[in-house]
Task: inverse folding
């Protein structure tokens, strides 16, 4: 058990390192470099060369990578050559903002989808299921940017109750950003809910058809009790992974939605950094996202342990 | 026939005028600049809204393209046009309380000429002037001795790089923004948001507004949404496409103000890149297309045709020289140059909503001449760093409001940093030099017109049209007036 | 001593031997979900393939006189800002979406299947190492990977296919590997091993045929994601070049004018959504028919 | 708990009455009948056994007693009554009351029927909820129940999760759960099928004892006639959803009337048969004595000190065995004793970690290498037949291909030749060659097993390793497959390693027996010698646990389990420190005398 956890952690660290290497290598391939980007239209070859020198771009990539990763381990992601400021200073506020959306989306989506998924699973092939399944199908089939655009049209322009775009900077206080979080959260929740609902539904149906649930029913206990005590823990088990995957996706994949809402999150920063060839920022984003991904999976594993005593106690027939 | 314009509610011609309420805060949405954005006028490439609010020039352009007083009250050349004397306004104070004198004006000019700073305006001014030629005989007088005679000199000082900054402020001006303008800087972050507040001590009097807030937004759609949702009052540096303009005009919150002929669109051919090194190919590209078609498709007629000449039709030095559209001749020229069935990539992006329609219309239009244009979409954010002056053919635009001499020198002269076609023609350069030194108004005009003729015939820039800028603004905004790169900051205000 | 002939209820035994294809088709027809889903997909394919026959207008020609018209007898769904017929563009729009998505999905699924089966069968160190690397790839946000690839190589159909393959192959590998791991310990694979057969024949003869259904479901589901992803890319400006009639591009071109010209935006949205619904329904129907556990496929 | 005993004496009305019950499910718009017109009655305190082959509808009938139908099926006619009340006329609350108070079910596989995420104590406690007892009392009850079903150290065990219990313990928990409701009727659906013989005997004892003590009325579903004869008062024989015979257990089991029942009974292997029984269509059985293996038969395989490890667990520990041509060597032993591991090593799927394994005869070779390292000719000489006919054939390949592949692989034959040979092989294993175009899914279990055998024969082996090849089959099918193996052995002079935990089967088919425990051979010898004793105590416990439907001491139910004969101390003839050699190749591993450590079931 302890051994398992340690191995799990070690593999998590390894995964993060590997992704850092991959990203670093890929980013090296970007054409045009930050020096030309910073100097922009007036770049003369000499100026570019000087700046490259000043920015340390002329040393071997491996050396730079090792130094960088050593710094990253201490939370120091170096200086952004574009803004000249520490990467961490730009990164954290953006990450915080994305987390704001991510956390509220996860809260909304997970609650909604577990409830809806269970209802759909229990009322399999009857009208509640039909309605829920149809809605999720639509939710899955409409791209996020369409959802976002429609929401803006509806709730910001036609009935102006919520801001259409975010005017604030990344460093604005959380309270100022809160109204702006609502629409992105809805747009993302719809998509995410759709996926989780379907998983939950399938898994509830599977579990409800299982022998132990039948046995519990044949014991004559009430249906809510059968569902909550007997079926749910097992039914949520496969859903956990889906949730973890979705959370990880949220952190990296909100770019499109953030773009629509001009939301100063990590997705926005990512798009900007790709355009600016701001490698240190990109690497930092990639490593942070990988870390979140790995942490989510770890959390899912821990959740699975909580739900599944077989994993917790390590005994039984696990080989 | 049923044109789109007819089917649509028409687009308002101008902004509402009237007596605005005292005070108020105007919120402007603008495209984000890079993190390197600076408020240093000599160096700035994007912060127009700030510059106009914070600074004054010695000379400014009025709406007819004439030079009129700003911080200089009057000026006169000597007979050859090589020494200019400017009389400066008295009793003007900078935002930090220091007095404006000729030393500040001289410092501003010398700074622009400083090769280390590499100001874009330096390419225009340094052929005429060296730092030693700037003299301050008295606090209220600036004398400039030119290296070569130039009768257009004051007009060149109306450029937005020539805003006057306090003497010795060079290191900090990029962040402090201390000028003599109607607003002073309160807050500014490069590429992000900022705020300027009314400067009570402004020499022309206090502006109507209390403050102006600027917000940066990448996506035009986001800017438009913010306007429609009432989150901002004005979209600056944004020419809305016709369809969007209709949506804005039809909304309850916002409307459109037309800024007539405010920008011209260009398809610059890089004359140093194949196949445009051959002037026959350039000529063919120009002969092959029909600017009227481009104007109709891309602007729905909200502009005038450009005839490949960037000098606006209603300005003093304009020439009516044109190339008649002739696809057959174009085909023949291409054939002569060995480029039968020419295939070229034309880059565009969503940076401006007119680029893509213009590119598509061009593509359509030249098909008759057997030219196959492939429109390539590039990312908006890196458009001006990765595509402009890098790709042989692309779509771009310029703001009008530059004096003809500045325009021709800056964009077409050999070696100028803004020479986007990398065109180099000694005859053209000579023409400009002699025009500048010519005292006779008529003769000068003819020389400038001759230069334009060369641009049309030989140059690399296709200039299909001048566009009215369709500016989205809130229905609350009164007295919105824009010329060149700045608004009428004193009078703009909100409805009471 | 007689053995009772008992038909398995799920595959009724027939006296005649059945051709596998015939059987598959018959099975498919049993599921309404799969039928509707596949029907929608086939419809989209047909419309895209027959576009030139369905409409005589050009999807790319600009007609300034006709710009921004509402629906009429001549233009059923009106025209866009450049005067192009919206319906025509929607009809042609499937060509890009379908070709690129199907090419990309095919590459990702094919590569993922081979890798997934091989690693499941080989097991051991190779499996461990490969899964580690794939995990690392999975940990990088797909959109970042896509942006980097597209920026490096420039946007174009081939690049997008490559990028999508890169992003989705690891996920396919995971799913296929899980399915193959379910087959590998089965006795018939063991029997082949006991005969001493090589890995490739085992993979082709014993493992693959038993996970084709997983692969098929994976394909349908993955395709639906790819269609959405590609439209998102178009939306961000990394997709088709104008004037290609592409749904994602059309949506992003026309969404500003949504209030005045709803159809120019709605029509491509509907087209896109029905295709995705079709793919999703197919995946659903197939998985239910074949009892593929889709919980593994949420990634 | 005494109201029932009042019923017991007071009324003669049957407690359970099923009348003309038919159940069907809908498939592709057709009604498929599963149960057709079943009627029976059970009086209070009696035990009715429902027997029949797999799929005959036993479970379906049993579940209707709890007013439960499988998803998608429905009652097409008839009624089910408990104490005069129509169960399918009850409303939801009524159904819940019925299940909470009157009828309880013990399912086949306790491992699957206990909720994995709940502690077992909580699950038992749940069944007490409807009785609205105070919490403390409920806890006490649970403890009592746990003691009653014989869970060792109940305090601790009740706090465990199901996966932390052994199969036997899980089944005991399930029984406690059923009893907690204090039901009048107990439905037992194959309560011991998943357990090994020794555990099965203990559980059956427990159930019989409790039923008697609590005066329960039981419905026992089973396909194991041994279990039935041990437990039932009355027997109901089903086939294809219909009742073919019903009556008092003693009568049905000893003097069956219906030919199907006779066939069923006759097909059951018996411990006292000294050879394979052949059963005619009408149910007469003749035991064909085994032809003894000639003394001078050459060795086919020899094993010396073979050890096999799975990582750090030693699954097979120093096994020395010898197998002659034409001989059937049976490996028996409880689950996990290493039988399959040994078989897999022989077949080249798992390299042994020590010892020698040699193939003798026409082709000689070292078997201590995995299949891919063995020369092709050695590889083909040892073939494996699998336990589970469902998973041993590739479901996507037709029968012919399954048999053809090894023919082509080993023999390098052309496709045409291989096709022809495949057909011959199929008829050799008594399959209609016309079936060769079918997929495995379209065959019955027995047919599939025959295909598996044909596939093994395609390599033209010398040794066939058969791992529990008949375990998953119904008795009648099992009998025919066994007969086939016997015939093949004679015709082809094959040597078999036959793995089974069914001692009656072993007695019928094997020439010699090796008993494994914890990876070691504890006893080895000719089948007669081993079954007549004297034995290792472990072997003895295995033999004693076998239930025999025709054994008079078993019929009539409720009898105490056979007394455990104390192991006879074998006469010591050798001076081997490890083995007692009893002569004739019969040897027994020495064991520590003293109390056998009680096994945790
Ligand atoms: N709802 C249903 N859907 C499909 N098949 C069904 C359904 N209900 C019952 N069956 C079929 O009905 C037959 C009888 O099933 P049942 O479980 O009662 O048999 P059984 O005698 O208990 O068999 P076993 O000994 O294998 O447990 C089987 O062939 C089963 O597959
Ligand atoms: N792949 C494996 N990895 C680790 N241990 C294993 C593996 N396979 C079997 N074992 C262990 O080896 C021992 C012997 O297992 P084996 O399967 O040979 O028993 P068996 O006698 O065939 O039992 P059964 O009657 O249940 O089939 C058991 O303790 C089992 O847990
Ligand atoms: Mg059953
Ligand atoms: Mg085994």
Result:
């Amino acid at each position: 058990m302890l051994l398992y956890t340690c191995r799990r952690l070690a593999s998590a660290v390894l995964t993060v390192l590997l992704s850092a290497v991959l990203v670093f290598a890929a980013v090296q391939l970007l054409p045009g470099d930050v020096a030309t980007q910073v100097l922009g239209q007036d770049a003369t070859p000499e100026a570019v060369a000087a700046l490259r020198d000043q920015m340390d771009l002329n040393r071997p990539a491996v050396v730079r990578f090792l130094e960088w990763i050593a710094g990253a381990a201490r939370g120091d992601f170096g200086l952004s050559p574009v803004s000249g400021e520490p990467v961490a200073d730009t990164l954290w506020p953006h990450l915080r903002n994305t987390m704001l959306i991510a956390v509220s989306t996860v809260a909304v989506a997970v609650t909604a989808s577990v409830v809806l998924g269970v209802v759909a699973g229990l009322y399999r092939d009857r009208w509640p299921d039909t309605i829920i399944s149809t809605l999720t199908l639509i939710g899955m089939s409409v791209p996020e940017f369409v959802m976002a655009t429609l929401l803006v049209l509806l709730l910001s322009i036609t009935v102006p109750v919520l801001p259409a775009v975010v005017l604030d900077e990344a460093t604005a206080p959380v309270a100022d950003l809160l109204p702006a979080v609502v629409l992105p959260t809805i747009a993302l929740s719809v998509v995410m809910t759709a996926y989780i609902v379907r998983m939950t539904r399938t898994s509830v149906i599977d579990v409800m058809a299982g022998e132990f649930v039948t046995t519990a029913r044949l014991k004559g206990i009430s249906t809510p009790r059968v569902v909550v005590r007997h079926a749910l823990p097992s039914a949520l088990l496969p859903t956990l992974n889906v949730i973890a995957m979705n959370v990880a996706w949220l952190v990296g994949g909100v770019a499109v939605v953030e773009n629509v809402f001009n939301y100063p999150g990590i997705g926005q920063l990512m798009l900007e950094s790709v355009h600016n060839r701001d490698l240190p920022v990109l690497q930092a984003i990639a490593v942070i996202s990988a870390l979140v991904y790995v942490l989510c999976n770890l959390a899912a594993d821990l959740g699975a342990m909580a739900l599944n005593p077989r994993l917790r106690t390590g005994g039984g027939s696990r080989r | 026939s049923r044109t789109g314009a007819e089917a649509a509610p028409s687009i308002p011609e101008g902004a509402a005028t009237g007596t605005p309420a005292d005070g108020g805060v105007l919120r402007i949405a603008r495209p984000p600049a890079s993190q390197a954005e600076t408020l240093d006028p000599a160096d700035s490439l994007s912060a127009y809204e700030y510059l106009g609010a914070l600074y004054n020039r010695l000379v400014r352009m009025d709406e007819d393209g004439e030079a009129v007083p700003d911080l200089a009250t009057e000026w006169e050349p000597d007979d050859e046009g090589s020494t200019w004397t400017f009389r400066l306004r008295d009793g003007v104070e900078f935002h930090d309380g220091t007095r404006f004198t000729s030393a500040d004006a001289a410092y501003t000019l010398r700074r622009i000429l400083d090769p280390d700073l590499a100001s874009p305006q330096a390419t225009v001014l340094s052929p005429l002037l060296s730092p030693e030629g700037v003299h301050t005989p008295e606090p209220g007088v600036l004398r400039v001795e030119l290296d070569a005679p130039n009768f257009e000199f004051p007009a060149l000082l109306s450029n937005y790089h020539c805003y006057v900054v306090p003497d010795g402020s060079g290191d900090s001006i990029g962040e402090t923004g201390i000028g003599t303008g109607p607003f002073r800087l309160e807050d500014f972050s490069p590429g992000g948001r900022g705020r300027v507040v009314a400067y009570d001590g402004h020499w022309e009097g206090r502006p109507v507004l209390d403050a102006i807030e600027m917000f940066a937004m990448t996506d035009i759609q986001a800017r438009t949404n913010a306007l429609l949702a009432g989150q901002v009052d004005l979209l600056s540096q944004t020419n809305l496409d016709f369809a969007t303009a209709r949506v804005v005009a039809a909304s309850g919150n916002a409307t459109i103000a037309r800024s007539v002929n405010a920008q011209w669109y260009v398809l610059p051919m890089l004359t140093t890149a194949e196949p445009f090194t051959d002037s026959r190919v350039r000529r063919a590209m120009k002969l092959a297309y029909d600017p009227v078609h481009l104007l109709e498709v891309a602007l729905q007629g909200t502009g005038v045709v450009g005839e490949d000449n960037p000098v606006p039709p209603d300005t003093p030095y304009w020439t009516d020289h044109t190339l008649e559209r002739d696809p057959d001749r174009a085909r023949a020229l291409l054939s002569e140059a060995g480029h039968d069935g020419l295939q070229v990539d034309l880059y565009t992006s969503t940076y401006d909503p007119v680029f893509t329609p213009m590119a598509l219309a061009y593509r359509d239009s030249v098909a008759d001449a057997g030219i196959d244009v492939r429109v390539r979409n590039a990312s908006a954010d890196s458009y001006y760093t990765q595509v402009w002056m890098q790709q042989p053919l692309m779509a771009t635009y310029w703001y009008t409001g530059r004096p003809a001499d500045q325009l021709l020198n800056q964009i077409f002269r050999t070696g100028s940093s803004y020479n986007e076609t990398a065109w180099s023609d000694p005859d053209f350069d000579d023409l400009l030099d002699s025009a500048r030194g010519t005292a006779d108004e008529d003769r000068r005009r003819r020389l400038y017109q001759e230069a334009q003729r060369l641009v049309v015939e030989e140059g690399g820039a296709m200039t299909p049209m001048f566009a009215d800028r369709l500016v989205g603004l809130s229905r609350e905004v009164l007295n919105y007036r824009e010329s060149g790169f700045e608004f009428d900051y004193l009078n703009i205000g909100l409805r009471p | 001593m007689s053995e009772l002939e008992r038909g398995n209820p799920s595959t009724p035994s027939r006296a005649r031997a059945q051709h596998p294809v015939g059987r598959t088709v018959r099975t498919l027809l049993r599921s309404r979900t799969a039928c509707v889903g596949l029907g929608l997909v086939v419809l989209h394919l047909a419309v895209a393939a027959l576009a030139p026959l369905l409409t005589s207008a050009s999807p790319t020609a600009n007609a300034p006189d006709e710009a921004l018209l509402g629906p009429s007898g001549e233009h059923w769904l009106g025209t866009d800002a450049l005067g192009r017929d919206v319906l025509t563009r929607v009809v042609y729009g499937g060509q890009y979406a379908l070709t690129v998505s199907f090419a990309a999905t095919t590459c990702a699924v094919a590569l993922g299947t081979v890798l997934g089966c091989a690693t499941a069968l080989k097991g051991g160190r190779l499996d461990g190492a490969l899964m580690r690397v794939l995990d690392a790839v999975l940990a990088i946000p797909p959109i970042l990977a896509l942006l980097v690839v597209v920026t490096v190589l420039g946007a174009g159909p081939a690049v997008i296919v490559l990028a999508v393959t890169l992003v989705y192959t690891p996920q396919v590998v995971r799913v296929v590997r899980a399915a193959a791991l379910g087959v590998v310990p089965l006795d018939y694979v063991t029997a082949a091993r006991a005969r001493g057969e090589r890995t490739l024949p085992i993979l082709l003869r014993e493992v693959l045929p038993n996970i084709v259904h997983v692969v098929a479901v994976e394909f349908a589901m993955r395709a639906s994601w790819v269609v959405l992803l590609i439209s998102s890319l178009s939306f961000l400006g990394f997709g088709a070049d104008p004037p290609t009639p592409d749904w994602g591009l059309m949506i992003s071109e026309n969404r500003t004018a949504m209030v005045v010209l709803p159809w120019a935006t709605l029509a491509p949205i509907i087209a896109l959504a029905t295709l995705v619904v079709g793919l999703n329904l197919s995946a659903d129907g197939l998985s239910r028919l074949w009892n593929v556990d889709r919980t593994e496929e949420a990634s | 708990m005494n109201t029932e005993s009042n019923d017991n004496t007071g009324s003669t009305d049957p407690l359970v009455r099923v009348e003309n019950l038919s159940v069907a499910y809908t498939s592709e718009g057709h009604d498929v009948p599963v149960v057709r017109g079943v009627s029976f009655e059970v009086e209070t305190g009696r035990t009715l056994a429902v027997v029949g082959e797999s799929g005959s509808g036993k479970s379906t009938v049993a579940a209707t007693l709890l007013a439960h139908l499988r998803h998608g099926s429905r009652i097409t006619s008839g009624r089910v009554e408990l104490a005069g009340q129509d169960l399918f006329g009850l409303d939801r609350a009524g159904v819940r009351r019925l299940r909470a108070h009157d009828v309880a079910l013990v399912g086949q596989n306790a491992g699957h029927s206990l909720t994995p995420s709940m502690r077992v104590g909580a699950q038992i406690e749940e069944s007490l909820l409807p009785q609205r007892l105070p919490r403390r009392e409920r806890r006490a009850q649970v403890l009592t129940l746990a003691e009653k079903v014989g869970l060792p150290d109940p305090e601790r065990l009740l706090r465990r999760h199901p996966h932390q219990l052994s199969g036997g313990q899980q089944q005991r928990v399930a029984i406690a759960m059923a009893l907690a409701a204090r039901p009048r009727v107990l439905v037992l659906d194959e309560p011991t099928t998943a357990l090994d013989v020794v555990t099965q005997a203990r559980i059956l004892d427990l159930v019989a004892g409790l039923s008697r003590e609590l005066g329960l009325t039981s419905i026992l579903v089973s396909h194991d006639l041994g279990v039935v004869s041990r437990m039932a008062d009355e027997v109901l024989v089903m086939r294809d959803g219909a009742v073919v015979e019903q009556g008092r257990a003693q009568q049905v089991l000893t003097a069956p009337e219906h030919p199907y029942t006779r066939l069923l009974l006759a097909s059951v292997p018996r411990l006292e048969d000294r050879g394979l029984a052949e059963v005619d269509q009408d149910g007469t059985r003749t035991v064909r004595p085994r032809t003894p293996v000639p003394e001078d038969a050459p060795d086919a395989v020899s094993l010396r000190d073979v050890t096999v490890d799975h990582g750090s667990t030693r699954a097979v520990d120093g096994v020395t065995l010898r197998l002659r041509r034409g001989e059937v060597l049976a490996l028996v032993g409880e689950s996990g004793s290493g039988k399959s591991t040994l078989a897999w090593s022989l077949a080249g799927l798992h390299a042994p970690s020590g010892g020698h394994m040699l193939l003798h005869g026409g082709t000689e070779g070292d078997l201590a290498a995995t299949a891919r390292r063995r020369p092709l000719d050695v590889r083909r000489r040892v073939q494996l037949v699998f336990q589970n006919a469902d998973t041993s054939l590739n479901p996507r390949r037709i029968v012919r291909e399954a048999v053809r592949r090894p023919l082509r692989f080993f023999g390098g034959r052309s496709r045409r030749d291989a096709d022809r040979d495949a057909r011959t092989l199929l008829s050799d294993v008594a399959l209609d060659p016309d079936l060769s175009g079918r997929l495995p899914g379209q065959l019955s279990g027995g047919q599939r097993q025959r295909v598996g055998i044909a596939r093994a024969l395609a390599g033209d082996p010398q040794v066939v390793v058969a791992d529990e090849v008949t375990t998953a089959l119904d008795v009648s099918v099992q009998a025919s497959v066994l007969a086939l193996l016997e015939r093949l052995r004679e015709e082809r002079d094959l040597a078999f390693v036959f793995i089974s935990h069914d001692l009656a089967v072993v007695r019928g088919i094997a020439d010699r027996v090796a008993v494994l425990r914890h990876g070691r051979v504890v006893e080895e010898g000719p089948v007669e010698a081993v079954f007549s004793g004297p034995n290792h105590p472990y072997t003895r416990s295995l033999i004693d646990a076998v239930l025999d439907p025709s054994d008079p001491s078993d019929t009539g139910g409720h009898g105490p389990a056979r007394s455990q004969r104390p192991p006879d101390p074998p006469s010591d003839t050798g001076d081997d420190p490890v083995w007692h050699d009893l002569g004739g190749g019969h040897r027994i591993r020495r064991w520590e005398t003293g109390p056998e450590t009680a096994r945790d079931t």
About this structure: Chain C touches chain A through 44 residues (CB under 8 Å). The pocket of magnesium ion (ligand 4) is lined by residues D 339-340 (CB under 6 Å). Residues 199-236 of chain C form the longest helix (38 residues).
